[in-house]
Amino acid sequence: MLPVSGLGELVLIGTGGFIGASLRYTISSRVPKVLNIPAGTLTVNFLGSIVLALLTFSSEPKSVVYLVNIGILGSFTTFSTFAYETFKLLEEGQNVSFFMNIFLNVMLCLLGVSIAYLALRL
């Protein structure tokens, strides 16, 4: 890995950002809505929560944090898209899907962190 200082940090973050954004597009564009819930965004946020927690709880070196946690996962997971899609559900009168999308995103992401935490403790 590159040294973690100055330009090296930016290169790691930028490289990770390209990878994460490409993965997010690939995954979220292939996962169809389920009961009007944007399951693609839910999927990337859930997977990202697991990976972030696995790396964070395992005390990876700074180079991995810059590449994966900040770069890849920073562009792979997406709170802004979640917020937009949730708002659109409300705007379209999809009240049940609106609340389910919020509930599922929060609970599944917390579940993902818990799974990672427990997996590393076993």
Automatic annotation (TrEMBL):
Extract the InterPro entries matched here. Answer: FluC
Tell me what topology the record assigns in the membrane: Multi-pass membrane protein
Tell me where the transmembrane regions lie: 6-27, 34-57, 63-84, 96-120
Where does it reside? Cell membrane
Q: Which reaction does it catalyse?
A: fluoride(in) = fluoride(out)
Q: How is its activity regulated?
A: Na(+) is not transported, but it plays an essential structural role and its presence is essential for fluoride channel function.
The superkingdom of the source organism is Archaea
Keyword Metal-binding attributed:
yes
Q: Family, per the entry?
A: Belongs to the fluoride channel Fluc/FEX (TC 1.A.43) family.
Q: What is this protein called?
A: Fluoride-specific ion channel FluC
- According to its UniProt entry, this protein's organism is Methanosarcina horonobensis HB-1 = JCM 15518
Species classification: Archaea, Methanobacteriati, Methanobacteriota, Stenosarchaea group, Methanomicrobia
